[in-house]
Amino acid sequence: MALFNNPFNAGTRFGKGCSCGRHESDSAHQAALSAEAVAIENAGEESRYRNIVEQAVMRALFPADHQRRAFLKAVGASTAAAALASVFPIGQATEALAQTGPIEKKDLKVGFIPITCATPIIMAHPLGFYSKHGLNVEVVRTAGWAVIRDKTLNKEYDAAHMLAPMPIAISMGVGSNPIPYSVSAIENINGQAITLAMKHKDKRDPKDWKGFRFAVPFDYSMHNYLLRYYLAEHGIDPDRDVQIRSVPPPEMVANLRADNIDGFLGPDPFNQRAVFDGVGFIHLLSKELWDGHPCCAFAASREFVTTMPNTYRALLKSIIDATAHAQKAENRKAIAEAIAAPNYLNQPVTVLEQILTGTYADGLGGVKRDANRIQFDPFPWESFAVWILTQMKRWGQVKTDIDYQAIARQVFLATDAGAMMKELGLTPPTATSKSFSVMGKPFDPAKPEEYVASFAIKRT
Amino acid sequence: MTRSVGARALVLSLVIFTIFVVAWHLAVKGGGAGTAVVDPEYAKLVGQAASTGGQSAMPGPLDVAKTIWRHLSDPFYVRGTNDMGIGIQLAYSLARVLIGFGIAVLIAVPLGFLIGMSPIVYRALDPFIQVMKPISPLAWMPLALYTIKDSTLSSIFVIFICSLWPMLINTAFGVASVRKDWLNVARTLEVGPIRKAFTVILPAAAPTILTGMRISVGIAWLVIVAAEMLVGGTGIGYFVWNQWNNLSLTDIITAILLIGLVGMALDQILARLTRLVTYPE
User: Membrane topology type, per the record (chain B) (predicted)?
Assistant: First the structure.
């Protein structure tokens, strides 16, 4: 099994040898993997899914490898499986994952906000990814994040483009009634920027930014957390030394022109649009703060996921398929052209092309090249959710004690996305959590409380 | 003599319009022809304003005229969910306004009639009406979306709730201020209450009722743009939001002009109706 190493194997050994530790060398590991893949292929879908589900449950129950092995050694793999089945409906879960039965609902509505973060959701329509997986999806441009939240909650939309922190906030009932929501896939990583008004072109050091007025699209957004993080790292208290307002992206450009704000951390195309219209310059890309940070998400209610499993699978598959297509640099120009149409983003093609290809005008007369300006990687790492939660905690959006890992696991459906990626011939990561660093400061998803406590500027 | 007054007013209107357009054109044109301040590779990546170092985003009257022509020459196309002709968008808005306004008429006129007939009810309901009347459509919208759970119905509800009050007040006022002499005559002739309502009160109050309807339809048309900007999907308000999202001022000005023209047409229709029911005393 390539997706995970089998947690039922009590003999798993870490250390020397191959990456999974079960084989003497990497070549032996590869050989065993391909043999296993053939065996699984022959065993049929059912058992493959059963495997995935069992392993996911096992991992969820015993996140630490040594605990899991100790448990398996004590009771034996088959007893463990039986014990698991008694507390968790593995059969049903397998069925939900494996079912390839008829799609319950072919005509779907998916809402999106017209920004480049929604690229996979939008392009799946003109480039035929939805129809390829048997769906007739209408992608509906929507007026704002709160409207998208309300229209998905009241079921006008079956699924929607959301900011990655939104489903977490909705599930926890922060800023709305608690309704179980899930992030099925991450839409894009990177792809945001800090844009400043032209008059500040000589004030590139954040330490000079006291008294600035900034805009971000939404309170529960990566934009808000990244801007706050960046300011705080430079000793600027985001609540006391500057003003941060929630402003819809097109209004950010207009406000910048009107001298109402000094800058914004917002989604594209509006950073590039400010440059295109000559009202601002790109101070830095968000990837310079945290390379590989998530931004927007493809979200659906838990109800949709459980009541229409086949539809959900087909939809998720189309999105992941489109995301993989969007990730390839050679497709980017065609995508820019497809989504620039009035029916989708309704923006000049030049602007979108600069964002997607990464060769862009910075607003100060220079042309910059960064092929990774925006990237598309669907895997919803649980550690992303944990990081988001630490920032919610840090800035006082969440005041109570929370179980970071549990919320992350419930909302970010990493296992589903991984399974779907595998079906599409992609290679999903073998873990559901990873550590990363933001502005050079490492983050360990296993120790969220320590991370929150480590900041000098916070509102806890 | 009267004809020449009309003709002279028309000439004056045209002169004012021409002055306005020329002033607009000159104001926008100023400073547009700056020299290129950047290298050609960079200039290709940015728009005209940025490449010449200028900042003006205001379109001139010629741009707007071209855009209006483009929209009006093909008003009814549908190229997908998010791309429809301006005629279709206006039709969506008009339909919502007429439904919301129609329901408001059906409720406000009979209710206003009852309120107007009874001084006690008039006094009792007055505080409520006065409180409800000034509430903005934008305040109703989130509540409507949250409870009705349907964006089209929500916008119709908002139209309804905002256009209800002027009609209610005017109907009640019209009914209450029917001349006492006429009611006394009706009493002397021993006319029944229903016949009295239809043959005496209704014709007497009709001009006031229609004035209320005229105010209401104006409010409804004001409200729909705000409601659709908020809810999105279809309609002229959504068109404005969408072009705003595209930062295209030319299209927004086009939409503003069309909204004004349709509003005027609605107003004129009700003005005609008012003239039909008015009678010389």
Answer: Multi-pass membrane protein
